User: Fold Aldehyde dehydrogenase family 3 member B1 from Balearica regulorum gibbericeps.
Amino acid sequence: VADPCDVQNVARRVAWGRFFNAGQTCIAPDYVLCSVEMQEKLMPALREAITEFFGSNPRESPDFGRIVGDKQFRRIRALLCSGRVAIGGQTDENERYIAPTVLADVLPSDPAMQEEIFGPILPIVVVASMDEAIDFINARPRPLAIYAFSCDSKVVNQVLERTSSGGLRGNDTLMPVTLTSLPFGGIGNSGLGKYHGKFTCDTFTHHRGCLHRNMGLEALNALRYPPYSQQKLGLLTATFEIKRKGMCTLL
Assistant:
């Protein structure tokens, strides 16, 4: 998160992206990078967004889900020891309920930063500058998505140009996955290929290169056959210097 001009709109979009389906989506923002000043501004905005979405007690909200299984519940609950719980933190193992939670002052070495969370926990890591944020991203496996927030398009473009990821979203979170006009996919550890509409067809289509010649004009092939000589080399060099228009057909 870099210099947002409207913290409220940042908090709502980030909160929605993180807590949608109780955080159990592969494209949820896994952590927030921001300055210590921005962290303090984000906290009340995130708290307000969570209350707006799920009420004062998210446990009673029909719009907030539960963790898919007991094993995953225990794994996610163990991540609450990272940083300090600034918002939420309540759990109920019987219901597999984990409240929408924001962790502040999280360190890169904390458990929440060692794996994909896949749950309703949002860690905030403090960085001193945009350069430090970009170095932080580039020091880790390339992510499926990067979310950059700023009213200055130059800042978003800087993140785009200086990082590598499956996709980048400027000033929003989950929405691009709903657009069939945009390719969706990862890079490196975050996945291979790209999907949506024609992109899916291209991913699963093999363009086979084929060459089919006739059996005549064998004299033209003499240059490629041994024994080799300086005369053949000279003829080959002269041949490749001539610009010729070839014919190619994809079968």
Notes: The helical segments are 7-19, 36-54, 70-78, 130-138, 153-162, 197-203, 230-241. Residues 7-197 form a domain with the Aldehyde Dehydrogenase; Chain A, domain 2 fold (CATH 3.40.309.10). Residues 36-54 form the longest helix (19 residues). Strands lie at 32-34, 84-87, 91-92, 97-98, 101-104, 121-126, 145-148, 167-170.
